[in-house]
Amino acid sequence: MHQNSSNLCALCRGTKMLCGKSRCPVLVKFHSRDKLLPLINSKKIHGASPPSVFIGRVGYPKVSIGPMIPPKMGDTSLYDAPERWLDKSIDDIVDFRSMLIRGKHRIHVNDVESSNKMVSFTRELALSKNSVYTEALFHKKPRGSIKFYDDVQPHGPSAVLKKFDISNPKYEPHMEKAYYDTDLKSMDAILQLYKQGVSISNIHKAFSVGSFGIGKYRKFVPTRWSITAVDSNIGKTLVKQTKTYPWINEFRVYYHNQFDNRWIILMMPSEWEYELIEAWYPDTTWNQYSKDIAIFNSYEFYDGRKTYAEIGGCYYAARLAVNETLHKDKRQAATVIMREAHPGYIMPIGVWNVRESVRKTLQLPYQKFDTLNEALVYIEKYLDIPMSRWIKNSALLKNRLYQKRLEDFIGI
Asked: Which of 43, 46, 64, 206 could pair with 135 in a Cys bridge, judged by C-beta atoms 3.0 to 4.6 Å apart?
């Protein structure tokens, strides 16, 4: 029987790497927490919020909202700017994210215009463009372990707020304009901000605190839901545009290795189709108790999906990144993303990793091929899993390889 994670940890104690990972995730978290504890041994915390906020989902429609505050002054913007994290190590990300203390205030999601200062200050942080001096008084000292999720960036300990205050926030001007336009629908506001160059992570934050939309319909949105909603809706809009462009003329293969995730992106000359396939090795985050590689996929053909993707937010984050590239090139393609998550990916760090890794991969030079078979032979050099297994788990590749297409009959 495969030993469970806690038994392995007790046997290993960070010395034998029995879990198969290159570094002990328990020790990585411990060292980050060890640096933090002396700084939060109080009911009062002050520092420069990146700015950052967190909206919980537990107990919905009554949720916990509030700031994320590091006990540090100066420019902390890096702490909540995932677009700038790809050149950092996982240890670096854990270090600065663990510094973010989450303050919690319970409220109904519809109370976005409450006169309560904790509500208005939370919104002001989400709309701010620079780090904001923030001071919080908690009912008890912050406690708890560092929290890691696959869809939300990690954060440090938390505590219930007694009160908090901020000093001189300066709104991001495009988001400020959208906030005051109470006749502008939320999705129109999101698309407008995206086109104006506001970062995706900033749009996520502002959307989560109910800053956009028709006045009476505004509400708080849990952080993890807001990330997927923004990625999904921007991506869906870009897909509509992608479908108007001519097909690419060749098979393209992009490759990149990030955080011990191997990314292959295959683009095929075709009408729009899209698939994300993730292969998780044993002892990685989503495959801890099996000795076999676990493979999951979600996909859409030309007409799109009617149900939420099985893979979750990663699917929409990657789809957004793919369509950014196709939109830039003014081309249309069928795209298959293959992700091998190896044991060096020691812990989940958020869906941003997928969006930014796919963006990065698509910025690199690609290899061109005349046929799909040539492309697949090339891809197999970069992935450990045999191509036959990728094909077995792929809707798009099976459809392309085994279904007769119109061009097969008319010699296109």
From this structure: 46
